[in-house]
Design goal:
The chain has six helices and 19 strands. The chain has 302 residues and is of the alpha+beta class. The strands form four sheets. Strands 6-2-3-4-17-16-15-10 form an eight-stranded antiparallel β-sheet. Strands 5-1-7-8-9 form a five-stranded antiparallel β-sheet. Strands 13-12-11-14 form a four-stranded antiparallel β-sheet. Strand 7 and strand 8 form a beta hairpin. Helix 1 runs antiparallel to helix 2 and helix 3 packs across helix 4. The longest helix is centred in the C-terminal third of the chain and has 14 residues.
Length: 302
């Protein structure tokens, strides 16, 4: 393999793919990035066996080939070679890198040892990138971080009746968002997707399509245990969480004893000030609503 590529084109793609490298991997190859020529472009791939990312970027392909190299080392080198054309040459299980007056050789691992990342299937659905970009951050905060209950670390994602519904809960709080999906007349889709996967999808949308109206292609693998997102020139695959998500519809109250409407800016300011006095072990705030008053008070809960 032998290619030439500008540092300013190589670095952003490398940084994006590196987020999915196995940091504490038991298999050495999971700490590597796969470099592979594919249809006249350079393909970068990384996986931690939970999430896999494949990105295609333009490059001058001189010789075809493939190799995996340590992600951290490669990223540090490319980050330092500012504003130069980088030449990469793979020979056996070594990668030669040169740019300007810099030359280096990295020991790699054969590409044959790199795990296969699922590719998107023929059957897929299309969602507006703006809908996902806005919706996911509004519910992801409520999902669990503790891996003790894996089901609660996922976000229930369902498309039906021309609507996208996403739900997240950690057992103490719950967030639910409904968005209208255009062109989803005959779509019925339901999956429990890891929170970290959807957060990475949001990052990719910002990097790949920005604020454009480009569609995101979503599909599942043949065995239905992997979900694949295609965002611009990047494809992300992830394992789905198996199990039954809590019946959140039963948790949300149907009726309310009282209801208050508050100005958003005032509420945020009051919560921020009150949180200064919350104890680390309690970290709670008490809302005290006074009947007939437009003001409200926040008090530290001891």
């Amino acid at each position: 393999m032998r290619i030439k590529i500008l540092q300013q084109d190589f670095l952003p793609a490398l940084q994006s793919v590196s987020r999915s490298v196995g940091v504490k991997a038991t298999l050495p190859v999971l700490a590597n990035i796969l470099l592979k020529t594919h249809k006249g472009k350079l393909q970068l791939a990384a996986t931690n066996l939970e999430v896999g990312v494949i990105k295609l970027i333009n490059a001058n392909i001189i010789e075809e080939g493939e190799i995996t190299v340590p992600a951290r080392t490669l990223l540090e080198i490319v980050s330092s070679l500012t504003g130069v054309e980088i030449e990469i040459e793979g020979v056996m299980e070594q990668l030669k890198i040169s740019g300007g007056s810099f030359n280096a050789v990295l020991n790699g691992i054969s590409a044959s040892e790199f795990p296969t990342i699922p590719l998107s299937s023929e059957k897929s659905i299309l969602l507006d990138s703006k809908v996902l970009k806005q919706t996911i951050p509004e519910v992801s905060f409520a999902s669990a971080i503790d891996e003790g209950r894996p089901i609660l670390t996922g976000i229930l994602t369902e498309i039906k009746d021309k609507k996208l519904e996403v739900v997240a809960t950690d057992g103490f709080r719950l967030a639910h968002k409904t968005s209208v999906v255009e062109g989803a007349d005959d779509i019925n889709f339901k999956a429990l997707i890891p929170r970290r996967t959807l957060e990475e999808v949001v990052r990719l949308i910002s990097e790949e399509v920005g604020d454009s109206d480009e569609k995101i292609e979503i599909s599942t693998s043949e065995n239905q245990n992997q979900i694949i997102f295609k965002v611009g020139n990047t494809q992300l695959s992830s394992r789905l969480i198996e199990g039954n998500f809590p019946s959140w519809e039963r948790i949300v109250p149907k009726n309310f004893l009282n209801r208050s409407v508050m100005e958003r800016a005032s509420l945020l300011k009051a919560v921020k000030l009150a949180s200064v006095f919350t104890r680390a072990e309690a970290n709670t705030i008490k809302f005290q609503i006074l009947t007939g008053k437009s003001n409200f008070y926040l008090k530290q809960k001891n």
